[in-house]
Amino acid sequence: MRILVANVNTTQSMTDSIVEQARAAAAPGTEIVGLTPRFGAESCEGNFESYLAAIAVMDAVQSYPGPFDAVVQAGYGEHGREGLQELLDVPVVDITEAAASTALFLGHKYSVVTTLDRAVPLIEDRLKLAGLDARCASVRASGLAVLELEEEPERAVEAIVQQSELAVTQDKAEVIVLGCGGMAGLNDQVRERTGVPVVDGVAAAVTIAESLVRLGLSTSKVRTYAAPRPKKVIGWPVPAAD
Amino acid sequence: MRILVANVNTTQSMTDSIVEQARAAAAPGTEIVGLTPRFGAESCEGNFESYLAAIAVMDAVQSYPGPFDAVVQAGYGEHGREGLQELLDVPVVDITEAAASTALFLGHKYSVVTTLDRAVPLIEDRLKLAGLDARCASVRASGLAVLELEEEPERAVEAIVQQSELAVTQDKAEVIVLGCGGMAGLNDQVRERTGVPVVDGVAAAVTIAESLVRLGLSTSKVRTYAAPRPKKVIGWPVPAAD
Amino acid sequence: MRILVANVNTTQSMTDSIVEQARAAAAPGTEIVGLTPRFGAESCEGNFESYLAAIAVMDAVQSYPGPFDAVVQAGYGEHGREGLQELLDVPVVDITEAAASTALFLGHKYSVVTTLDRAVPLIEDRLKLAGLDARCASVRASGLAVLELEEEPERAVEAIVQQSELAVTQDKAEVIVLGCGGMAGLNDQVRERTGVPVVDGVAAAVTIAESLVRLGLSTSKVRTYAAPRPKKVIGWPVPAAD
Amino acid sequence: MRILVANVNTTQSMTDSIVEQARAAAAPGTEIVGLTPRFGAESCEGNFESYLAAIAVMDAVQSYPGPFDAVVQAGYGEHGREGLQELLDVPVVDITEAAASTALFLGHKYSVVTTLDRAVPLIEDRLKLAGLDARCASVRASGLAVLELEEEPERAVEAIVQQSELAVTQDKAEVIVLGCGGMAGLNDQVRERTGVPVVDGVAAAVTIAESLVRLGLSTSKVRTYAAPRPKKVIGWPVPAAD
Amino acid sequence: MRILVANVNTTQSMTDSIVEQARAAAAPGTEIVGLTPRFGAESCEGNFESYLAAIAVMDAVQSYPGPFDAVVQAGYGEHGREGLQELLDVPVVDITEAAASTALFLGHKYSVVTTLDRAVPLIEDRLKLAGLDARCASVRASGLAVLELEEEPERAVEAIVQQSELAVTQDKAEVIVLGCGGMAGLNDQVRERTGVPVVDGVAAAVTIAESLVRLGLSTSKVRTYAAPRPKKVIGWPVPAAD
Amino acid sequence: MRILVANVNTTQSMTDSIVEQARAAAAPGTEIVGLTPRFGAESCEGNFESYLAAIAVMDAVQSYPGPFDAVVQAGYGEHGREGLQELLDVPVVDITEAAASTALFLGHKYSVVTTLDRAVPLIEDRLKLAGLDARCASVRASGLAVLELEEEPERAVEAIVQQSELAVTQDKAEVIVLGCGGMAGLNDQVRERTGVPVVDGVAAAVTIAESLVRLGLSTSKVRTYAAPRPKKVIGWPVPAAD
Question: Are residues A120 and A151 in the same domain?
Answer without folding.
Answer: yes
